[in-house]
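quick one
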Amino acid sequence: MNNVFVYCELTEENSVAEVSIELCSKGRKLANDLGVKLEAVLIGNMSEEIASQLSPLGVDVLHLAQDKRFSPYTTMPHAAIVCGIFRKEQPEIALFGATSVGRDLAPRVASELRCGLTADCTSLEIGNHTEAKTGKEYTNLLYQIRPAFGGNIIATIINPDTRPQMATVREGVMKKEMVSNNYNIEVKKVDAEQFLNPAHFAVEIIERHIEAQKINIKNSNIIVAGGYGVGSRENFKLLFELADALGGEVGASRAAVDAGYVEHERQIGQTGVTVRPKLYIACGISGAVQHRAGMAESATIISINNDPNAPINNIADYVINGEVQDVIPKMIKYYRSNSK
Amino acid sequence: MSFRIVVLAKQVPDTRNVGKDAMKADGTVNRAALPAIFNPEDLNALEMALRVKDQIDGAEVIIVTMGPPRAADIIRESMYRGADSGILITDRRFAGSDTLATSYAISMAVRKLFPVNLVIAGRQAIDGDTAQVGPQVAEKLNFPQVTYAESIEAVDTNAITIKRRLERGIEVVKMPYPSVITVHGSAAPCRARNAKRLLKFKKARTLTELQEESMDYGDLFENRPYLRIQEWSVEDIEANTEYLGLGGSPTKVKKIENVVFTAKESLVMEGNDEELNHLMKNLIDTHIIG
Ligand SMILES: Cc1cc2nc3c(=O)[nH]c(=O)nc-3n(C[C@H](O)[C@H](O)[C@H](O)COP(=O)(O)OP(=O)(O)OC[C@H]3O[C@@H](n4cnc5c(N)ncnc54)[C@H](O)[C@@H]3O)c2cc1C
Ligand SMILES: Nc1ncnc2c1ncn2[C@@H]1O[C@H](COP(=O)(O)O)[C@@H](O)[C@H]1O
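structure w/ flavin-adenine dinucleotide:
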């Protein structure tokens, strides 16, 4: 069987993006399940030293295409190089981040290679399949598991007959795991020119303003999350105060983000980040499935909601039937006077 | 001079109002059980197309949608707002298409409309949330693409300069024609219906709709050909059926499950001081906080 591939993205500071690191960790496990190698593809303007960021994750081979025209990312040259590498290496599985880069690139590659692609997977597993009509057996397929249809169902998607089996995954969904500090990685320099022609550079970048990632709620042990029920940007300040006191971060539901109460980077759920904190305080959040998808694995959940029947209460350890504006100041007050 | 803009728009089930019978046993969507709406970001796409049209003399905007007969609704809606004409790609053999098969069918329809300068799609459709069809159509047509477009910075008959909205900032890019753009929901909302256009296009119909309505439209299409919404079948777009429908879709749904979260045993309180103090003390004592 052929290998598992991960397309790695670069950050503005030219290191490997978090989402790609998480995908390499997942890729390592899938490769172990299949008994194959894990290979990464990196395209950009960086030095070979970047391999040291990938080797601890258990990447066996790094395909490196270096040129200053490849950073920042543009679609066509990256797609041409990825397709070129994939045609030669015939990956079994290919994973991409569900980012503005990955979601721009992966469909283009899938279309060119005529293979299936599943967006925004929340879980990836190896499993078998028997086709109902023909009785044909498939072993070791990639189960691409994702919420579908507005999150109301969980679908398991497979690509029985086309390779690579392609999927995109959001940041924070997979866990970063180091394998070893002296894992042996082989760097293969890609001769990118063979895949390129001038037409690939038709789109010209004129201007870029990208901020470094400032907010990162994913790694916080305590998250105070607010929903539409918080009511205003002003009221959200209470949540920041509580998070500050507890040493946590503020998260939000999509409805709160859409209403402009807080930044998009704080959105938790299917289309935001996935978090697994020790404590999750849901304030004025109803608990739609898309939101729960991103926080249900929190160790302890407190729900503050004035509707006793809010769905979030079903998964909460503590349910406080009350108004956010009343309850939070009390929590802050008690904590401030009783913590050391 | 002619300048042709094709807008890809989809009629989608309103996933915000999903009932129990929304899915069929084979894992496909039971569209009949749901209210159908104009995919929100496709309205942003239509607006962007109309803004290009406003700036280029003689430009025309054609809506292309693939779906069941009732998807003609969104073509009419587009006409009321400023689109010149529309094409409904409809055929039972398209049913069950995944994004690859869909983009193949759409790209074949766009080819029938050549020469096309711009194809403008929404970023993603709310039923699948995949954001795949735009880039896949671009690849099938071998056009360059710009995704996540938020606004037009400049446009003429040689190139378009677009501001893109990314996770943590913006990028301004310049792209020649022919090309594909996908439009982000942060772009300008679509202009409202225009009263004159509403009157003009109210009777726009597909042939199928005309036959179904028992009203007598007489020589409607002959006298006012702009009222005819074209319907294209597999043969009309000269598509290879191998690449269409369930058979032409590499992704298969193996299994669907309803989302069930097991309910936890929770401690319920009314939020008085005593209870809250007790809770906070408990969290501190168990080192969850502090
Ligand atoms: C494809 C798709 C993807 C999505 N992805 C996400 C995602 O990633 N993340 C996400 O969060 N959502 C997502 N959503 C949206 C999701 O379906 C819900 O609409 C959203 O989570 C609701 O947010 P909410 O709970 O803040 O708002 P609401 O549902 O409006 O709930 C507000 C809650 O606040 C309570 N409340 C009101 N006032 C007060 C008060 N004063 N004190 C206490 N409680 C009060 C109410 O009782 C209610 O329970 C997605 C939807 C779709 C279709
Ligand atoms: N059946 C369809 N008919 C017309 N346009 C479509 C169709 N499906 C998808 N699109 C276009 O492609 C975009 C992305 O769709 P999706 O990949 O399904 O998220 C949509 O916003 C539409 O512009």
